[in-house]
Design brief:
This protein is an alpha/beta fold. It is elongated. Strand 4, helix 4 and strand 5 form a beta-alpha-beta unit. The chain folds into two domains: about 190 residues, Rossmann fold, CATH 3.40.50.1000; about 230 residues, Spore Coat Polysaccharide Biosynthesis Protein SpsA, Chain A (Alpha-Beta Complex), CATH 3.90.550. The chain is about 25% helix and about 20% strand. It contains eleven helices and 19 strands.
Length: about 425
């Protein structure tokens, strides 16, 4: 079960100062629509909020509950609902003017954000997978709480908009409103990943005689593990690993992904199917997905997958291919794009007029599965670039570290460089 943990004041509701009366509450613009979208996406929507006015003697715990009831009623009028409310009434600081009845709340606790206590308690109650869940708030304290709990985090630009600067922490994503955040979460939930791990790595023999190329270690971890951790960081937890050569060694290491806090499927290929054929063969594991992020198993990167996905979600193309400026265009797949980032021509290898090269990372709409022929095919040459006059394909130009390990020289270079920047 996934969940979305929402801050209340400044995220769901407009007022950011201490709220002590239900009539002070007003929903943020678009908040009800965003929460309704999350409700329909099948996730638990849970409010986790610090309410230190209880510790200040300004309101009782019952008073906070009445305010939460008002929030719920306002949402339900618009067809949305919160599944549960958690609030922390505590404050750790001691003052002489605190009313006697409030002194019991002046304690250190595990529930006051940025501590993750409320999130962890809710996760236990609802059997929530925290790695696949999100925390959304307008303050750095919300973001740190989400990270402390192991969720993905989204800072919204309503309320305080992160300007409290209490903690030196950066959210995984930033969105203007809760509605924008909900749209992003919905898209991420509908995104699955494919890692193409079928190559034999013949140029790396004898290293790959008994080891699949994507299992080659970089700083003690196989390349595939870096891929999985990168996907997980940005909220993509459903992964399909496609391979045939020594794929049992990959299965033995990663299993179903549980110990890496993801879910992994293996379609199985009796013989190599090429990049297109492998994606087509994985279709049974892509049910309910709307987008597929595809990574080559022999390309290692630290790129911001979140920025790539947001670019793709915001465009209407059937695909987004990641490009970079290359220093070796003669042996790179060169792709030309226009000022709108639309792919206009697939040039291929053997020329050095253009230097924007395909890096082996892309995001596809799942409708492309119907365009992939059965059997062996190459996703770019046999599918994508035959659709250039029929569908929009976009190029996402990245300056991130993206290197393949396909030759002994490149592997040596990556082993020297990547641990320093990952």
């Amino acid at each position: 079960m996934r969940a979305v943990f929402l801050d209340r004041d400044g995220t769901v509701t407009k007022k950011t100062s201490l709220v002590v009366k239900p009539e002070e509450i007003e929903l943020e613009d678009g908040a009800a629509e965003g929460i309704k979208m999350l409700n329909k996406s099948g996730v638990k929507v849970i409010v986790v909020t610090n309410q230190p006015q209880v510790a200040r003697g300004l309101i009782s715990e019952d008073g906070v509950k009445k305010i939460n009831d008002k929030v719920q009623k306002d949402l339900m009028k618009r067809g949305a609902h919160i599944d549960d409310f958690y609030f922390c009434p505590h404050h750790p600081e001691q003052y002489s003017d605190v009313p006697e009845h409030a002194k019991k709340y002046r304690v250190e606790c595990s529930c006051r954000k940025p501590n993750p206590g409320m999130i962890l308690e809710a996760a236990k109650k609802y059997n929530v997978d925290l790695t696949g869940s999100f925390t959304v708030g307008d303050r750095t304290v919300d973001i740190l709480a989400g990270k402390n709990a192991g969720t993905r985090t989204i800072l919204v630009k309503t309320g305080v908009a992160g300007k409290d600067k209490k903690h030196d922490i950066k959210a995984d994503y930033e969105c203007d409103t809760l509605l924008n955040a909900a749209t992003l979460i919905r898209n991420l939930i509908k995104t699955k990943a494919i890692i193409l791990a079928g190559g034999k790595g013949e140029r790396l023999l004898p290293l790959t005689k008994d080891l699949p190329k994507p299992m080659i270690p970089i700083n003690g971890k196989p390349v595939l593990e870096y891929h999985i951790n990168l996907l997980k960081k940005y909220g993509v937890n459903e992964i399909v690993i496609c391979g045939s050569y020594l794929v049992d060694k990959i299965k033995a290491y990663f299993g179903d992904g549980r110990k890496f806090r993801v879910h992994i499927d293996y379609p199985g290929e009796k013989e190599p199917l090429g990049t297109g054929g492998a994606i087509k063969n994985a279709a049974q594991y892509l049910v309910n997905a709307e987008n597929i992020i595809v990574l080559n198993g022999d390309v290692i990167t630290n790129m911001n997958i979140g920025s790539l996905l947001r670019f793709h979600f915001s465009h209407s193309g059937i695909a987004t291919v990641v490009l970079r400026k290359t220093d070796h265009p003669i042996d790179s797949d060169i792709i030309k794009i226009n000022e709108k980032n639309e792919v206009t021509k697939y040039i291929g290898r053997g020329q050095d007029i253009h230097k924007t090269a395909n890096v082996g990372i892309m995001v596809l709409r799942t409708k492309i599965l119907d365009r992939i022929p059965n059997g062996i095919s190459n996703i770019e040459k046999d599918v994508l670039f035959k659709l250039l006059n029929k569908e929009k394909i976009y190029g996402y130009l990245s300056d991130a570290y993206i290197k393949d390990i396909g030759t002994p020289e490149r592997l040596k270079k990556v082993r020297r460089e990547f641990p320093l920047i990952s």
